[in-house]
C-alpha cells in the first residue's frame, strides 16, 4: 500500500480536484496562490510574471480589494526572503492605482503597530524593511521614511527602558539600510548622517555584558564572534564607505523604473513607537556565528567578507527560508539550494554556516535540533557531489576548535554528529583525529570523541562501535552496557543482605506480590540503627540496596522489562523511598547497577519521577553528590538534569492550564446563568451549581502554589550546589596557587550558564529570590559574573 | 503572568499563508488499518489526535533501546511496544512509539520518518492507538504480511520472504 504523502513533482498547489465554484474562500485561495507563487516554474522572466500579475490584481481590485490587501500584508510579514519581488508588485499596483497604494501603506502601518503590541518583533522587522524598500519602488516618499527612522532612533533617548527595546529600534533601522540606504542618503544625506551618528553613540554606550554567555567559542581566532549590532554597524559603515553601492540584492523593480518613477508617492504617517509596557518582551541579543571565510573555498566564488553587507543579506535570507519551510524538509532544502546568486557566492558554505549558526545558537536553536540533522541529510541528497565535502570540512573545523567551544554547543555537536553518522554507516576518518588519543581524557577533544562514540552505540550496538574505530581508539570506546549485580556471584555471599537477595530473586521469579516482598525485606537489618523500628520502614539503606539491585538485575533484559518491574513493585518502591534519604539512596543504587548503561539510568530516573518514586529535588541532589563526581562532566548527567527540570516545568504549566480552564468554565457558567436570568432568581441553586467548580478551583490554586514552590525549590537546590562546588574549586586553586581554568572548571561554569540559558523564562520569575539569597555581592566574582550576564539578557 | 508574556500570535487576528501551512510529512497517509474496529470517520478522528506512531521496515535485530534513542530526539517517549511474530514471539520488524505530546509525534513524522535506523530507511505513520493484540504480525507465518510475499533477500528481516522460503 502506498504511503507516499507528498509528491515530488511541482504541484502549483491545487492537489485536490474540486468543482470550481466561485465561493469567496476559493477565490481567496486562488489569489493567494497567484501571489505567493509568482514567478515559480514559469518559462517567462520574473519581471514579465510580475507585470502579468499586476494586471490581474488591478482588474480584481474593485471586487477583492480587502482580500488582496490582506494577502499582500501577510506576504510582507511572512515571506521576507522574497521582499523585493513583492515590493515591486506593490509598486506596479501603486503606479496603476494610487488609492490602492495609499491603502496598502495604511494597512501595513496598522499591521506594524499590531505586531509591536503583541511582541512579534521579528516579524515587525520584516514589515519595516518592506516599507523601506517601497521607497525604491516609488510608493513611499523618502523623506517620510527618514522621518520614521528618526522616530525609531530617538527611542535610544528614552529613559528607564530596557536596553533590548532600544536595540530593536536601532536594529530595525540599520537592517533596512542594505535595501534603501542609497536612496535615503541621496535624498536626505544630512538627516541620515545625523541618524547614523546618533546610532553610533548609542552603540558605543550600550552595555555588552551578555556577550560572553552567547558566544559559541570563547576565542576570537580565526573568526571573532561579534555581538549582532556591532557586526551590523560595521557592515553599514562599510556600505556607506562604498557609497551605498549594494550589488547582491535582486531588485526586480529596476526593470520597471520608467513606469515606477511616473507614480505618485505616499507619505508615511508620523509613526510614534508604542511605549514600553510591563508586558513588552523584546528579542534577546545575539552573537553572529561565523565559521567560514574566503580562504575556506579557494576554488569557488569568493565568500563575501564578514563586514560586507552582502554577507548580512545572504544570511538573513537563508535564515528566513528555513523559518518559512522548517516543516517541509525537502522544500526547505530545495529553496536553500535555489537561492539566487549561486555562481557568485559559495552557496553551500553559506548554507552550512547558517544551519550550524542556528543549531549552535544560544540560548536555544530556533527549531528542534533533529530538524537540522535531517535538513543536512536532504541537502546532501540534492547535492551529493559537493555538499558532503563542505559538511566534512565543517566537521573537521568544529573538531579543531573544540577547546574553546561552549559546552552546550559541544552537546549539540555531539548529538548532531552521532546522529548524522548513523545515517551513513558510521563512516568517518577517525585516524585523522588520533591527536586526541595522546591528551588527557578530560580534555575537550578526547571527551568529544568518547561522547560521540557513546551516542553512536546507543543508535546501534556495542560491537558495531568497536568495529568502526581503529584499535587505537579503544581507550575512548564506550563500556559494554551490562548490568552490575553485586549479589550475583557466589563469592559475594559474605555481603550483608546476600541471602535476602537470593530469597527475593526466587520470590520475584515466582510472581510474588508486594506484600510478600515486604515480608521478605523485614528480615534485613538496618545498618543505621541498633534496633529496628516496629514498622521497619524508616530509611534503611540496606533494604533499598537489596531490593533495587535484585529487581533491576532481574528486569535487566530491556527497558520494557524494567518499566514493568517498577510498575509491579511500585508500592515497595514508594515505601522504601518515602524519605528524602531513601529517594537519594534509590538513585545511588540505580547508578551502581547501571553505571555502564547511562541510557538505562536516564530512562529509569525519568520513570521514577513520573511515578513519583523519587522527586525532582532528589535527582538534583543526587547529581551533585560525591558518588557521581566522577561522572559529573559526562553528557548523560546533564541530559538527566535538564530532562528533570523540563518535567518540573511542564508539570507546573499543566496544573496552571487546568486552573485557567476551570476558571473559564466557571465564568461561562455564570455567563449562561446571567443570560437566562429571571428577576426571581433562586440564589441557593446557583450557588449549588457553582460549588463543585469553585471547590475545584480552590484545590487547583493550592496545587499550583505547591507545584510552583517545588519548582522554585528545585532551582534553588541546583544553584546552591553549583555555588558550593565552584566555590570549593576556586578556593582550592587560590590557596594552592594553581590556575582556576581547568577543563573541569570550564565545563562546570558553562553548565551553570546552561541552566540559566535553557530555562531562562522560568528563572526570570525567581530573579529576586536568586539575587537576595544566592547570587549576592559576597559571591566570588567568577560565579557572580554568570548571574550578571544572565540579567543582562533582558536588561 | 504566563499569557501576557507570550508572543501573542494567537491573540491577534493575523493569519498565515497556505504555502507556509503545508505540513505534508505530518499529514495522514492513505493507509487505513483494515482491522480497525469502527468507522473510517472514527479511525481518522483518532489518527488526527493520536500521539502514537507505527514504525515499519525495522531490522529484526533493532532493539527497544535503539528505537528509544532515535525517537527520543523529537520528544519524551511514553512507551515503545515492539512488534512480535505471533508464533515465535520474537521481534518481527515493526513497533509502536507513543509520545506524551502530539507535537513530539509530529516532529518524529517530519524528521525521523524516512531516515535510517540500523542502516535501514524506516517509515513512520500515524496509528489510531495501541490495543492488545496489535503487537503481533498479521502474516500467515506469524510475521508481517509484507514478509510473507516479498521476493527479495533481506538479511535483517529473516532472509527471503516466507512464500519463497517454502518453495
TrEMBL record, chain A:
MIF4G domain sequence ranges: 28-240
Localization: Cytoplasm; Nucleus
Record's keyword terms, sorted: Coiled coil, Cytoplasm, mRNA capping, mRNA processing, mRNA splicing, mRNA transport, Nonsense-mediated mRNA decay, Nucleus, RNA-mediated gene silencing, Translation regulation, Transport
Domain of life: Eukaryota
GO cellular component: cytoplasm; nuclear cap binding complex; nucleus
Region (Disordered): 1-28, 666-695
Gene Ontology biological process terms, A to Z: 7-methylguanosine mRNA capping; mRNA export from nucleus; nuclear-transcribed mRNA catabolic process, nonsense-mediated decay; regulation of mRNA processing; regulation of translation; regulatory ncRNA-mediated gene silencing; RNA splicing
Listed GO MF terms: mRNA binding; RNA cap binding
Xref: InterPro entries: ARM-type_fold, CBP80, MIF4G-like_typ-1, MIF4G-like_typ-2, MIF4G-like_typ-3
A UniProt-annotated Pfam family: MIF4G_like_2
Keyword Cytoplasm carried by entry: yes
Presence of the UniProt keyword Cytoplasm in the record: yes
Stretches with biased composition (Basic and acidic residues): 685-695
Homology family: Belongs to the NCBP1 family.
Name of this protein: NCBP1 protein
Organism from which the protein derives: Tricholaema leucomelas
Gene label: Ncbp1
From TrEMBL, chain B:
Pfam families with a match to the protein in the record: RRM_1 (PF00076)
Biological processes, Gene Ontology terms: mRNA cis splicing, via spliceosome; mRNA transport; nuclear-transcribed mRNA catabolic process, nonsense-mediated decay; regulatory ncRNA-mediated gene silencing
SUPFAM superfamilies for the chain: RNA-binding domain, RBD
GO cellular component labels: nuclear cap binding complex; nucleus
Annotated ranges, domain RRM: 51-129
Subcellular location field: Nucleus
Alphabetized UniProt keyword annotations: mRNA processing, mRNA splicing, mRNA transport, Nonsense-mediated mRNA decay, Nucleus, RNA-binding, RNA-mediated gene silencing, Transport
Family matches, as InterPro entries: NCBP2 (IPR027157), NCBP2_RRM (IPR034148), Nucleotide-bd_a/b_plait_sf (IPR012677), RBD_domain_sf (IPR035979), RRM_dom (IPR000504)
GO molecular function: RNA cap binding
Role summary: Component of the cap-binding complex (CBC), which binds co-transcriptionally to the 5' cap of pre-mRNAs and is involved in various processes such as pre-mRNA splicing, translation regulation, nonsense-mediated mRNA decay, RNA-mediated gene silencing (RNAi) by microRNAs (miRNAs) and mRNA export. The CBC complex is involved in mRNA export from the nucleus, leading to the recruitment of the mRNA export machinery to the 5' end of mRNA and to mRNA export in a 5' to 3' direction through the nuclear pore.
Similarity remark: Belongs to the RRM NCBP2 family.
Assembly behavior: Component of the nuclear cap-binding complex (CBC), a heterodimer composed of ncbp1/cbp80 and ncbp2/cbp20 that interacts with m7GpppG-capped RNA.
UniProt-recorded name of the protein: Nuclear cap-binding protein subunit 2
Lineage: Eukaryota, Metazoa, Chordata, Craniata, Vertebrata
Gene this chain is encoded by: Ncbp2_1
Amino acid at each position: 500500500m502506498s504511503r507516499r504523502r507528498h509528491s515530488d513533482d511541482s504541484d502549483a498547489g491545487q492537489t485536490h480536484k474540486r468543482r470550481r465554484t466561485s465561493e469567496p474562500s476559493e477565490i481567496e485561495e486562488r489569489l493567494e496562490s497567484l501571489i505567493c507563487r509568482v514567478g515559480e516554474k514559469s518559462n517567462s522572466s520574473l519581471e514579465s510574471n510580475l507585470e502579468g500579475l499586476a494586471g490581474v490584481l488591478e482588474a480584481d481590485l474593485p471586487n477583492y480589494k480587502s482580500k488582496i490587501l490582506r494577502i499582500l500584508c501577510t506576504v510582507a510579514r511572512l515571506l521576507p526572503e522574497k521582499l523585493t519581488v513583492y515590493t515591486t508588485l506593490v509598486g506596479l499596483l501603486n503606479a496603476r492605482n494610487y488609492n490602492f497604494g495609499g491603502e496598502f501603506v495604511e494597512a501595513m502601518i496598522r499591521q506594524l503597530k499590531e505586531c509591536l503590541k503583541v511582541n512579534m518583533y521579528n516579524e515587525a522587522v520584516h514589515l519595516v524593511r518592506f516599507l523601506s524598500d517601497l521607497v525604491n519602488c516609488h510608493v513611499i516618499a523618502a523623506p517620510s521614511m527618514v522621518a520614521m527612522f528618526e522616530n525609531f532612533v530617538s527611542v535610544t533617548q528614552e529613559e528607564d527602558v530596557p536596553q533590548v527595546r532600544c536595540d530593536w529600534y536601532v536594529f530595525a533601522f540599520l537592517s533596512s539600510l542594505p535595501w534603501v540606504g542609497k536612496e535615503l542618503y541621496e535624498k536626505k544625506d544630512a538627516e541620515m548622517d545625523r541618524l547614523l551618528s546618533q546610532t553610533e553613540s548609542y552603540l558605543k554606550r550600550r552595555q555588552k555584558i551578555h556577550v560572553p554567555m552567547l558566544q559559541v567559542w570563547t576565542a576570537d581566532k580565526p573568526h571573532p564572534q561579534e555581538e549582532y549590532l556591532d557586526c551590523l554597524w560595521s557592515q553599514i559603515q562599510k556600505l556607506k564607505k562604498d557609497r551605498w553601492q549594494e550589488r547582491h540584492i535582486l531588485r526586480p523593480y529596476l526593470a520597471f523604473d520608467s513606469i515606477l518613477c511616473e507614480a505618485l508617492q505616499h507619505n508615511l504617517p508620523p509613526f510614534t513607537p508604542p511605549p514600553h509596557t510591563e508586558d513588552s518582551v523584546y528579542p534577546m541579543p545575539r552573537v553572529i556565528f561565523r565559521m567560514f571565510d574566503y580562504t575556506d573555498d579557494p576554488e569557488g566564488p569568493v565568500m563575501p567578507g564578514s563586514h560586507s553587507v552582502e554577507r548580512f543579506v545572504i544570511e538573513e535570507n537563508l535564515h528566513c527560508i528555513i523559518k518559512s519551510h522548517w516543516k517541509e524538509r525537502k522544500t526547505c532544502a530545495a529553496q536553500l539550494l535555489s537561492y539566487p546568486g549561486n555562481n557568485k557566492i559559495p552557496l553551500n558554505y553559506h548554507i552550512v554556516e547558517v544551519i550550524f549558526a542556528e543549531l549552535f545558537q544560544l540560548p536555544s536553536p530556533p527549531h528542534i535540533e533533529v530538524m537540522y540533522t535531517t535538513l543536512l541529510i536532504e541537502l546532501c541528497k540534492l547535492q551529493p557531489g559537493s555538499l558532503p565535502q563542505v559538511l566534512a570540512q565543517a566537521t573537521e573545523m568544529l573538531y579543531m576548535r573544540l577547546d574553546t567551544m561552549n559546552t552546550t554547543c559541544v552537546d549539540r555537536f555531539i548529538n548532531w554528529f552521532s546522529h548524522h553518522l548513523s545515517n551513513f554507516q558510521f563512516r568517518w576518518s577517525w585516524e585523522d583525529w588520533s591527536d586526541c588519543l595522546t591528551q588527557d581524557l578530560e580534555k575537550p577533544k578526547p571527551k568529544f570523541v568518547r561522547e560521540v562514540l557513546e551516542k553512536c552505540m546507543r543508535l546501534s550496538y556495542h560491537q558495531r562501535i568497536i568495529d568502526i574505530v581503529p584499535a587505537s581508539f579503544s581507550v575512548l570506546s564506550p563500556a559494554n552496557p551490562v548490568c552490575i549485580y553485586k549479589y550475583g556471584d557466589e563469592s559475594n555471599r559474605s555481603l550483608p543482605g546476600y541471602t535476602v537477595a537470593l530469597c527475593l530473586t526466587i520470590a520475584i521469579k515466582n510472581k510474588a506480590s508486594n506484600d510478600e516482598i515486604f515480608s521478605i525485606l523485614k528480615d534485613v537489618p538496618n545498618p543505621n540503627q541498633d534496633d529496628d523500628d516496629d514498622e521497619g520502614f524508616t530509611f534503611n539503606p540496606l533494604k533499598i540496596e537489596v531490593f533495587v539491585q535484585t529487581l533491576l538485575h532481574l528486569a535487566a533484559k530491556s527497558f520494557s522489562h524494567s518499566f514493568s518491574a517498577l510498575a509491579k513493585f511500585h508500592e515497595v518502591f514508594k515505601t522504601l523511598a518515602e524519605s528524602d534519604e531513601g529517594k537519594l539512596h534509590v538513585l545511588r543504587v540505580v547508578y551502581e547497577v547501571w553505571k555502564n548503561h547511562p541510557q538505562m539510568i536516564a530512562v529509569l530516573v525519568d520513570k521514577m519521577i513520573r511515578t513519583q518514586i523519587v522527586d525532582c529535588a532528589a535527582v538534583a541532589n543526587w547529581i551533585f553528590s560525591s558518588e557521581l563526581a566522577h561522572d559529573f562532566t559526562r553528557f548523560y548527567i546533564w541530559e538527566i538534569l535538564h530532562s528533570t527540570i523540563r518535567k518540573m516545568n511542564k508539570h507546573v504549566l499543566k496544573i496552571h492550564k487546568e486552573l485557567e480552564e476551570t476558571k473559564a468554565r466557571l465564568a461561562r457558567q455564570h455567563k449562561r446563568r446571567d443570560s437566562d436570568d429571571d428577576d426571581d432568581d433562586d440564589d441557593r441553586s446557583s450557588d449549588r451549581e457553582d460549588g463543585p467548580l469553585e471547590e475545584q478551583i480552590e484545590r487547583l490554586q493550592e496545587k499550583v502554589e505547591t507545584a510552583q514552590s517545588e519548582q522554585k525549590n528545585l532551582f534553588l537546590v541546583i544553584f546552591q550546589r553549583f555555588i558550593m562546588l565552584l566555590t570549593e574549586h576556586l578556593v582550592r586553586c587560590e590557596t594552592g596557587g594553581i590556575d582556576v581554568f581547568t577543563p573541569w572548571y570550564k565545563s562546570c561554569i558553562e553548565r551553570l550558564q546552561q541552566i540559566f540559558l535553557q530555562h531562562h523564562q522560568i528563572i526570570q520569575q525567581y530573579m529576586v529570590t536568586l539575587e537576595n539569597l544566592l547570587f549576592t555581592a559576597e559571591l566570588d566574582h567568577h560565579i557572580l559574573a554568570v548571574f550578571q550576564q544572565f540579567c543582562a539578557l533582558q536588561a | 503572568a504566563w499569557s501576557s508574556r507570550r508572543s501573542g500570535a494567537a491573540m491577534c487576528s493575523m493569519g498565515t499563508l497556505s504555502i507556509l501551512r503545508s505540513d505534508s510529512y505530518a499529514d495522514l497517509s492513505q493507509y487505513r488499518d483494515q482491522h480497525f474496529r469502527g468507522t473510517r470517520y472514527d479511525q481518522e478522528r483518532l489518527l488526527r489526535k493520536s500521539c502514537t506512531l507505527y514504525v515499519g521496515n525495522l531490522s529484526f535485530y533493532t532493539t527497544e533501546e535503539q528505537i528509544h534513542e532515535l525517537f527520543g530526539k523529537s520528544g519524551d517517549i511514553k512507551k515503545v511496544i515492539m512488534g512480535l511474530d505471533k508464533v515465535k514471539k520474537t521481534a518481527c520488524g515493526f513497533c509502536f512509539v507513543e509520545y506524551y505530546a502530539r507535537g513530539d509525534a509530529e516532529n518524529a513524522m517530519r524528521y525521523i520518518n524516512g531516515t535510517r535506523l540500523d542502516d535501514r530507511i524506516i517509515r513512520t505513520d500515524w496509528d489510531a492507538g495501541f490495543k492488545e493484540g496489535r503487537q503481533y504480525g498479521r502474516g500467515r507465518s506469524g510475521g508481517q504480511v509484507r514478509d510473507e510475499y516479498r521476493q527479495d533477500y533481506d538479511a535483517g528481516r529473516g532472509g527471503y520472504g516466507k512464500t519463497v522460503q517454502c518453495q
